[in-house]
Specification:
This protein is of the alpha/beta class and about 425 residues long. The chain has 2 domains: about 190 residues, NAD(P)-binding Rossmann-like Domain (Rossmann fold, 3-Layer(aba) Sandwich); about 170 residues, Dihydrodipicolinate Reductase, domain 2. Helices cover about 35% and strands about 20% of the residues. The chain contains 15 helices and 15 strands. Helix 2 packs parallel to helix 13, helix 3 crosses helix 13 and helix 6 runs parallel beside helix 7. The longest helix is centred in the last third of the chain and has 20 residues. The radius of gyration is 21 Å and the shape is globular. The structure holds nicotinamide-adenine-dinucleotide. The site of nicotinamide-adenine-dinucleotide has 26 residues, from helix 3, strand 2 and helix 5.
Length: about 425
């Protein structure tokens, strides 16, 4: 959660305000120089959109080289390799014998690297993170870090192990590396709006891609290609996207909710290619001090959209995502910014600086607990009942398949017409 000493909030602010995007590379190079420029070998596991982006951001940090890639599907790996090679040239050194395909690709790719980037759908993250830690590798892993409580517990345990092994772990909750958020939340923690009793956090928008079934696909391949719509793979959109906003609420509250209750369903996105997930969730998350985060996430076109976080306190209000604060005494503050480094880039600058300077850096436990917050919300909307954090975290319901092959039958299967069972509040059990 905290930036490395090389880029503390204060000198990072100096870094940000004295560098624009155009001169960002120069600043990165100075940092690398200051911290020593030993080459670090990177392996990318999960070569999709975000994996390609994250690998590119890691390669923008001098001294880093991409040396291995792994993906479940050959075509995804090839596309990412081509794009990365075009942009980063010789920093991409992934010959055929360091390209790994299939469910076990991660093990071989991890073995060759100093640092691994984990960017598959989140259902696989606990397995991949455990293995990276077992093999003693530093990690950048995308959010969310699991899709069920068992996965969160595995990540929490591996996070402890990573600390013991002095491994550095970054998690792709990039708002923690975005100057406007850092500055705003610092002020909230200093009491700028008094005691914060209410938060509103939203991810309401139109939704994402869909990959309809192809006749030659096994059920496993279909679900893997269309992963967004299956809870074991993607977590539902409350976990996959809304985690960002819920994580901001946790950051502001310096803690995690003790219970949640909510409602949700699927009213518009009901076709069979939308699998089993809901298209809207509304949840109240209660923190130990009695404060509440009101959360909404919706994937429906033609509706009011907002991806934002707001706080209400005893002495004022804050638009956290808009980086502004208004005191009830008439005072007003707005983050000036203007020359910020892209937070997707900054999170890699911070992680690699910590690795090179051997400074403690561990975002895994917070990543796991913010993932759990989102899973708690999903449990509340799927079941319709109030769920306590401890019951949610200790849930024995395991969404993951028993094995991973193209012929494995996932636990969620279609009916003869191709439709999947969808959670029914009042009936569905989640703990
Ligand atoms: N931080 C952010 O703002 C942000 C933005 C986008 C995505 N993400 C996260 O990044 C992750 C990936 O999302 P994406 O948009 O890149 O998805 P994607 O579908 O484009 O890429 C996922 C890749 O993982 C591969 N894959 C699937 N299962 C695998 C396995 N078992 N082993 C190896 N490879 C496997 C897929 O074939 C695919 O190439 C998700 O967790 C997502 O939430 C984060």
């Amino acid at each position: 959660m905290n930036p490395s000493p090389i880029l503390t909030p204060v000198n990072r602010r100096h870094f940000i305000t004295t560098t624009g995007a155009a001169v960002g590379a120069l600043a990165i190079s100075r940092i690398a120089h200051a911290a020593g420029s030993d080459e670090l070998k990177i392996a990318l596991i999960g070569c999709g959109g975000r994996g390609t982006g994250a690998a590119g951001q890691a390669l923008n940090v001098p001294g880093n080289k991409l040396i291995a890639m792994g993906d479940a599907f050959g075509n995804r790996l090839e596309g990412a390799l081509k794009a990365l090679k075009e942009e980063h040239g010789e920093k991409v050194d992934v010959p055929a014998d360091r390209q790994f395909i299939g469910f076990d690709a991660y093990k071989q790719a991890i073995a060759l690297a100093d640092v691994v980037i984990l960017a598959t759908p989140p259902g696989f993250r606990p397995i991949h993170f455990e293995e990276a830690v077992r093999q003693g590798k530093h990690v950048f892993m995308e959010k969310p870090v699991a899709t069920d409580a068992g996965g969160v517990r595995r990540v929490l345990a591996a996070a402890e192990e990573a600390k013991k092994k002095n491994l550095k772990v970054g998690v792709g909750l990039q708002r923690h590396h975005q100057a406007g958020y850092i500055e705003t939340i610092k002020r909230l923690h200093e009491g700028a709006i008094g005691d914060i009793h209410t938060l509103r956090v939203y991810w309401n928008d139109a939704g994402v891609w869909v990959n309809p079934r192809k006749p030659e696909q096994t059920e496993m391949e279909y679900q893997m290609r269309n992963w967004y719509y299956f809870a074991w793979l993607g977590g539902d959109h409350i976990v996959e996207q809304h985690i960002h906003n819920l994580d901001v609420a946790n950051w502001v509250k310096k803690g995690y909710p003790v219970k949640a209750r909510g409602m949700g369903g699927r009213q518009v996105r009901t076709a069979k290619e939308y699998g089993e997930i809901f298209d809207h969730h509304a949840v109240e998350f209660f923190y130990a001090d009695g404060s509440v985060a009101f959360s909404q996430c919706r994937h429906i076109r033609g509706c009011w959209s907002s991806v934002s976080e707001h706080a209400v306190g005893s002495k004022g209000i804050a638009d956290i995502g808009g980086h502004s604060i208004k005191g009830s005494d008439g005072s007003a503050w707005r983050y000036k910014g203007g020359k910020d480094v892209d937070p997707y880039q900054q999170e890699h600058i911070d992680l690699f600086a910590a690795i090179r300077s051997n400074t403690e850096y561990s975002e895994a436990a917070n990543g796991a607990k913010s993932t759990m917050t989102a899973i708690l919300g999903r449990m509340a909307t799927y079941s319709g009942v109030e769920i306590a954090w401890d019951d949610a975290l200790n849930s024995k319901i395991n969404l993951m398949p028993d094995s991973y092959t193209w012929d494995t039958k996932p636990k969620t299967l279609p009916d003869p017409d191709g439709f999947y069972k969808v959670a029914v509040p009042g009936t569905t059990k989640v703990v």
